Amino acid sequence: MGFKCGIVGLPNVGKSTLFNALTQTAAAQAANYPFCTIEPNVGDVAVPDPRLEVLTKIAGSKEIIPTRLTFVDIAGLVRGASKGEGLGNQFLANIRECDAIAHVVRCFEDGDITHVEGKIDPISDIDTIETELMLADLDSLEKRVTNLEKKARGSDKESKETLDLVLRCLTVLRDGKPARIVSVHADERKLFAGLGLLSSKPVLYVCNVEEAAADTGNDFSERVKGRAAEEGAVAVVVSAKIESEIAVLPFADQKDYLEAVGLAEPGLNRVIRAGYGLLHLITYFTVGPKEARAWTIEAGTRAPQAAGVIHTDFEKGFIRSETIAYEDYVACNGESGAREAGKFRLEGKEYVVADGDVLHFRFAN
User: What's the whole-model pTM score?
Assistant: First the structure.
């Protein structure tokens, strides 16, 4: 399991440039005018994880298969998108299908690239996008209330529960706050997700800065980080221009380029790590002579469900998981050493998989 992250923002903030860099493709047209992205571009990206290289060397695996995640480049929203301005309705629907939002915020000045609002103000830009998402949610929920009230007066228990949740969401939205701050009980999560609220999506702010500020950020990005901290969200600084230049270089040359511009790693890595943290995702590994492979699951997933990510039969017939922590696998130089050192464990159905676990599942056919 990976996740689907929608890249959103105002026109001309660098969304398509970032998408091209992330997916190492020129599939999305980056141009200096609004709505150059007419259809959402979708790209799968390998998740960089240095642990895979280490495991491969130890096990002598012939192939590395990283886990992957999906980015969706969604055309620029504008003020009034919730009422259909620009290409609003279409793109709001595209956001609804995503698990999280990567909100690209312009944190650079460039007289050659116009700003749709006529000024560089990242907090105002954030407010514009957030307002449109909240207005769309308000409209969506208000249209459901009458029908839910009718059903709730009968014996429809789910309608009563849904109505209560909808009214709580409306209270928050009418107060000018996003639906993601609504307090939702564990047994309401499925209902809440079913509402499809745009402002309920976890948000990762991607501060697109000029090249000179790619490492430390600038005053604009500091303001965005402050906003993110207030919301309990996450902010990452990248230079989409630098990322696009890295993306077209041969892999062997990328390290030298990064060193030349004063960066330890591509911004992609930071975006992915932040996205993983945002959605509470972790990685486990399966390792053998044929391949070393990474798998993505939600934190808190038990062993049978983790096995089900590989194949549903693994979950149905789950017997046990042979488990070695990543650190123990490396320290003991592989499975044999881990067995000898007593670091090889047999875990049952209640075991909660930890990030980095090296697993082999036993199951009944």
Answer: 0.81
